[in-house]
Amino acid sequence: AHVEILNLVGATKVVFPNREAAKRITPLLISSTLLNYLPVSGKLVIAEMEIPNHFWGKTVLETDLRRKYALNLISVRRGTEEYGLFAPEYRFQEGDIALVSGTDEALEAFTGKESEVREKSSLLNNFKKLFHQK
């Protein structure tokens, strides 16, 4: 009802804060490695995430994120440093944070959290129901 009224008075976009919050917060609640999550469109997301320990000591080139995981590495930061440029020879270390773009499935494959996410899918569904309004 409210959407129709807003459209009649000329609104070109209606924002549902609860839905938008659920889209951004739910993935953070079900993943221990995600620090920030931004759905961009359809399946594309931008995420800030901890580098999994099985990548520590490997270079960006060695991890081959684009080919092996369908993830684009946008930037890397260490600890509280600002994000910056990095070379293919950059070697990941404990505490590194990556800014990546890709799909949810690619993020899960990269972090090795596919089973964790499946186990928590009922939690995810409950959150979606909680924030879904008609």
What does this structure look like?
With 134 residues, this protein is of the alpha+beta class. The chain has one domain: Regulator of K+ conductance, C-terminal domain (Alpha-Beta Plaits, 2-Layer Sandwich). 41% of the residues lie in helices and 22% in strands. It has helices at residues 2-8, 17-30, 60-63, 65-69, 104-111, 114-119, 121-131; strands at 34-41, 44-50, 72-78, 96-102. Strand 1 and strand 2 form a beta hairpin. The longest helix has 14 residues, at 17-30. The protein starts with a helix and ends with a helix.
Q: Strand fraction band?
A: 15-25%
How many angstroms does the end-to-end distance come to? 9 Å
* Radius of gyration (Å): 18 Å
How many domains, in number, for the residues? 1
Low-pLDDT windows of residues:
114-119
Task: Offer a few descriptive terms.
134 residues; alpha+beta; Alpha-Beta Plaits; four-stranded antiparallel beta sheet; 7 helices; 4 strands; 41% helix
Quick rundown:
With 134 residues, the protein is an alpha+beta fold. The protein is built from seven helices and four strands; from the N terminus they run ααββααββααα. 15% of the residues are buried.
